Amino acid sequence: MFVSATPILHADLDAFYASVEQRDDPRLRGRPVVVGGGVVLAASYEAKAFGIRTAMGGARALRLCPHAIVVPPRMSAYSAASKAVFEIFRDTTPLVEGLSIDEAFLDVGGLHKIVGPPELIAGRLRARVLAEVGLPITVGVARTKFLAKVASAVAKPDGLLVVPADRELEFLHPLPVERLWGVGKVTAAKLHTLGIRTVGEVARLDETDLVSILGKAAGRHLHALAHNRDPRPVQVGRRRRSIGSQRALGRSPHDLDAILASLIDSTSRRLRTAHRACRTVVLRLRFADFTRATRSHTLAHPTADTETLLVTARRLLTAAMPEIDGRGITLLGVSLANLHGEDQIQLMLPFDDLEPGALDAALDRLKDRFGAASVTRAAMLGRDPGISVPLLPD
After folding, report:
1. Is 13 domain-assigned?
2. Residue 103 annotated among the catalytic residues of the structure
3. What is the CATH number of the domain that holds 205?
């Protein structure tokens, strides 16, 4: 069995947005807190005890817990807290792979002689995050990224779990199949119908059997994970594969075109700030029945041009309108994927009098100086801009 010889930490902040709110307002501590009104963006563990979950409708959340305290999201506060935590990560080891705003892998294999064993390093990291940033964090320790992440999930909230190298499968195999990456409701249901409910039962199947049940890619993937085969190293400086933003919508009518334009404006600006260009535009939809759908289109050449991206996104939205009209919509999101360096943007002939990208650059400078709300589209004048939530990196 292949496993990395290097101990890996998976550090994951607990109920991140809600924990920041409880940290900053003592009146919220120990009470059920919901971040976001129309749709739950985060819930404290006190709220989760009532069955409230992320992405649940706000009205349903309040039915489950009428005394929950609903607070609006403060993205700047979450960003500042994340930066402070990641500074502690990088002070612990230079080998840090960020997964999202609130979690990362840390390779601590070279620190044993200097600092001590990984459980000591993990304990000190947790203590520093609590003392310096004021937030609880859970850490899982194992010899593979997969198992470290599973360990942190089992240890939540505010815990530390070390999986010894000689007891990895003893820990992994009794867990439910849902602990395997890639096993969602559909895959779990397929396995359950065959009487397969634990990781150990998956491991006892031949790879060919899993492939016949789940398909070639999924079958091989789950067979490897069930035996804790995960050769991926911690990747330092891994660049994100997409940049996106989404808007939760209430039940009242919305101008979807205006919201889409606003989302493209913000994501294309972030794209240019990161000196990237994209080839694929992805439209993300969540319907009133909580099902989801995506639509995408890949362009011939990478671009960071707002108008080009907006035209593409509008075509995707137009194609999806019959389904939206029939089912209702509660979330609209955009992702710019298939990213390239900005030096790969191909200039197209014939040139207009205005240099390509000049308008976008001028608008970006205005927003950098006077704020993101200083320039907006006419369609958004007099409207509630709502809250756009940046999508987490892949």
Report:
1. yes
2. yes
3. 1.10.150.20
Is cis: bond before 385, omega within 30 of 0? no
Q: Is 135 exposed, middle or buried (0-12, 13-18, 19+ CB in 10 A)?
A: buried
Give start and end residues of each alpha helix (H) in 274-379.
306-327, 358-370
- Domain extent for 199: 173-226
Average confidence (pLDDT) per 10 residues, the chain, 394 residues: 69 96 96 88 95 87 95 90 94 90 91 86 96 97 95 95 94 94 86 94 92 89 93 78 81 83 90 85 87 89 90 94 87 88 55 54 68 64 55 47
Q: Which helix (H) or strand (E) holds 208?
A: helix 207-214
Q: What's the N-to-C CA distance of the chain in angstroms?
A: 28
Q: Domains in the chain: how many in total? A: 3
Q: Which of 46, 97, 103, 168 is catalytic?
A: 103
- CATH code for the domain of 59: 3.30.70.270
pTM of the model: 0.67
* One domain for residues 293 and 326: yes
Q: Does a structural domain hold residue 235?
A: no
102 annotated ligand-binding residue: yes
Q: Per the domain annotation, does 232 fall within a domain? A: no
